[in-house]
């Protein structure tokens, strides 16, 4: 299996300034390491909520680091400093609205304030860029979806559609651990 190079970006003024320890990057790495069977290479960034810096980081990961998958965490709420979606849309070639719609559907299963989330999914060149929530449990829920007490999938997580989208933008064939996330590919 080909190595999957993933850009992961935690966007938080407080974590960047060391007011508290960043939990987004470890949560992303933990979930992805359990879900993806390919060897993984992470290109990590912890940055403040500054739109020009977010844009610059996404461009760097897409255009120069050649990451076919870029995941951000944080900065997607309604607060004035939450500018991750604006930065992501500013660097996008194409928007894939279904990713944001599905992320909100999953989160609404757990918390009514999910209607305030503004996550987006976009393509820039040969990269899929997805904005995830900031809390570690919300990251896992969004990626993996909602399961009932017996482990049956109730709402698919967004990662079920990530492998086919990574393939569509020219990335490697991504294999997933079906116990964590069954990826969907057309026959």
Automatic annotation (TrEMBL):
The molecular function GO annotations come to: molybdopterin adenylyltransferase activity
Pfam families, per database record: MoCF_biosynth
Pathways per UniProt: Cofactor biosynthesis; molybdopterin biosynthesis
Q: Keywords assigned by UniProt?
A: Molybdenum cofactor biosynthesis, Nucleotidyltransferase, Transferase
Which InterPro entries did the record assign? MoaB/Mog-like_dom_sf, MoaB/Mog_dom, MoCF_biosynth_CS, MPT_Adenylyltrnsfr/MoaC-Rel
Instruction: Using the UniProt record, name the top-level EC class of this enzyme in a single word.
Output: transferase
Give every MoaB/Mog domain span: 7-153
Q: What is its EC number?
A: 2.7.7.75
Catalysed transformations (reactions): molybdopterin + ATP + H(+) = adenylyl-molybdopterin + diphosphate
In the UniProt record, does the keyword Transmembrane helix occur? Answer: no
* Entry-linked CDD domains: MogA_MoaB
Q: What does this protein do?
A: Catalyzes the adenylation of molybdopterin as part of the biosynthesis of the molybdenum-cofactor.
Q: Which named protein is this?
A: Molybdopterin adenylyltransferase
Q: Please name the source species.
A: Advenella mandrilli
């Amino acid at each position: 299996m080909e190595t999957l190079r993933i850009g992961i970006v935690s966007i938080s003024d407080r974590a960047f300034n060391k007011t508290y320890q960043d939990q987004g990057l470890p949560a992303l790495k933990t979930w992805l390491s359990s879900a993806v069977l390919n060897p993984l290479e992470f290109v990590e960034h912890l940055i403040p909520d500054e739109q020009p810096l977010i844009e610059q980081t996404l461009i760097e990961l897409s255009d120069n680091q050649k990451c076919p998958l870029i995941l951000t965490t944080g900065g997607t709420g309604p607060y004035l400093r939450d500018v991750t979606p604006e930065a992501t849309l500013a660097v996008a070639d194409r928007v894939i609205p279904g990713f944001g719609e599905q992320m909100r559907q999953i989160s609404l299963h757990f918390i009514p304030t999910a209607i305030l989330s503004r996550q987006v999914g976009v393509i820039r060149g040969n990269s899929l860029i997805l904005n995830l929530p900031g809390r570690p449990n919300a990251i896992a829920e969004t990626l993996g979806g909602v399961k009932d007490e017996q482990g049956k999938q109730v709402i698919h997580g967004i990662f079920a559609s990530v492998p086919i989208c990574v393939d569509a933008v020219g990335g490697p064939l991504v294999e997933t651990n079906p116990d964590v996330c069954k990826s969907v590919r057309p026959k």
